[in-house]
Structure formats: C-alpha cells, structure tokens
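Notes from the 1:1 (GR / supervisor)

We went over the backlog. Supervisor wanted to see one worked example end to end before approving the batch request, so GR pasted a single chain during the call. The sequence is below; no edits were made to it. Supervisor asked that the structure be written out right there so they could see what the output format looks like.
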Amino acid sequence: MSKLAMKTIHVHDAVGSVLCHDITRIIPGESKGPVFRKGHVVREEDVEVLLQVGKEHLYVFESLPGMVHENDAAARVISAVSGGNLTCTEPREGRIDLKAACDGLLRVDVPVLNRINSLGEISVATIHTMQHVTKGRSVAGARVVPLMIEDEKLRQLESFVDGPVVEVLPLRRARVGVVTTGSEVFYGRIQDAFGPVLRKKFVALGSTVVGQTLTSDEVPMTAGAIRDFLEQGADFIVVTGGMSVDPDDRTPTAIRASGAGVVSYGAPVYPGAMFLLAYAQGAAGRVPVLGLPGCVMYHKASIFDLVVPRLLAGIEVTAADVAALGHGGFCSQCEECRYPVCPFGK
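Structure output shown during the call:
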C-alpha cells in the first residue's frame, strides 16, 4: 500500500508538491479542461497559472520517506531496461516511451521483461521482439501504477536487470548476390519476377544486390554461381526457386554442392515452409546462403521478413531459432488479417 498523506497548503508553498486532483481551467466560450492533472509536480512557473484559475490553496500528496513519484520512477525503470539506439520521451502522465534511434532489429529480453512485470506496480510494454523497425518508431513504454511507489521495489528491479531488456541492433549494409534458378527463366520462356522483388526488399533494409545470375535446374551450374559470388566478396547470398520436393527442384542439392553447410531445411512458417538456411566460407568471411521459396516473390510478408533482418543484425540464426518461429509463424493473407501487430513486422 502506498505510504502517502494528503494535506492542504498555500499555493506559494506548493512548489515541489504533487497534486491530488486535476486542476480545471475554463475560458468562457472557448474551452474547459485540465490545466494540470493529478500527479503533476508543481513548478515555480505554475504558481501564477494556479492563481489565475482561482487556486490559492491546493490539496497535495505528502510522501513519506522511501517513496518515489511516478515520473521519477518511470525514468529509473527506463534507465534500467534501455539498451543501445533508443531515445526516450518526456514523462506524460507518469509514462515514458522508447523510440528507435535508427533503423534496425528490435531485440527484447522477454524472460527479464516478464520478471519485471511480475513485480507488481511496475509495467513495461514492448512491441514484438526480433522485428525490423524504422527510426522514430515507438517500441516500448514504461510506467508505475500508483502515483508514488516504494523505492525498494525499484531497487529490486535494478538489482536483477544487468543488461539491455530493450535495444535496437543496427543492420549492416550487405552486398547481396542473387542466384535465380529455373530453366523456364534461364532459357527466356518467362521473365524473372524474383529479382526486382528482392532488390526492393534488400534496399528497404539498407543493403544492395550487387549481382544476379540466372541458372538452369542443373546442380553444377547453380552451385558454381553460388561459389562465384562467394569468391567475388558477396557477404549475403540468396538462391531463389526450386525449393520444393518436385524432381526438377534441385536448389537444396545445389546449395550443398557449393560447399555451404545447411543449418535448417524447412521452417514452421506459412508462407515460407520450404525455406533453407546455410552458411558458407567466402572472401568476405562466413556468409549466409538462403534458399528462398516462391512465396517470397508474391507475399507481402513471409519467412524473408522473419529471418533476413536477424542475419543483417549480426545474429547467428540456428536450427533451434528456426524451429521457434512456429509461434507466430502462421500468416493469413494481409487483406484478411485482423491481428493487431504483424509478427512478420509488416
């Protein structure tokens, strides 16, 4: 229970005190509304305003030792949870928000977040972890529930939070090589539609497609194209098409034949179940090599949007990480979706 007392004081003695109730200002014929809200800490410049609205005496909270005002408490919570590349807003009604200071990948330590919110009287809310965010986007907020909170509870939080709970990881600017498989494209029977889509997606993430090679369904040709990009210094390679189990779809075989080590083939993500993740050694070091199924070409949100930002943020994606994508990995078409926050980051 909050250790608070209420008292009446003269407005000239109120600087630094906390208002017990809203103070209303009426401008005849124009407006009526609160000029100061409950919980506001009275400042020197507020005294004249209070006198103008007829308040010579105020009801204020008098905190006892060991209590912290909601604004100061929110600032301490934000300070404890914030990692890199974040900016914070000014307190508003006891709440402070965090915004992305750059484009990047939002990472939230969910177990620690849950522990904070289990303390009681303290709340921290975030958007979904591991999604691409743009500069200026609000990603989290913090406040305490009562007007005053015990300092000991804040100290308890500060004692177990020993690293960033919320942070934005900047994305590296990758040089991307695209290998587009399929005899129908290689021989000019149809026009490639994958390349333009990937260029647009990678540009939105700050990266550049440095080249695109068309190959038939022959394994040696596709494997050779992958090795060429590795030797040329590409630090990210995507191979498109041919990812199903049909006899003519040989992209997974070609990725293995290139020397890349496959981490995961198949993902619990719809659209994107036939996704393949591998790593290969190239001139640029250890390079992700992705096998992208056709859904990436025509779905607004897919496996691409869950995995590629993580890789560009320098996160080592494992088979266990891919398996964990099943929770939130089911996507109806965007025009039918009613989910308030897209797990795919769209």
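Supervisor's comment: The chain has eleven helices and 20 strands.
Batch request approved.
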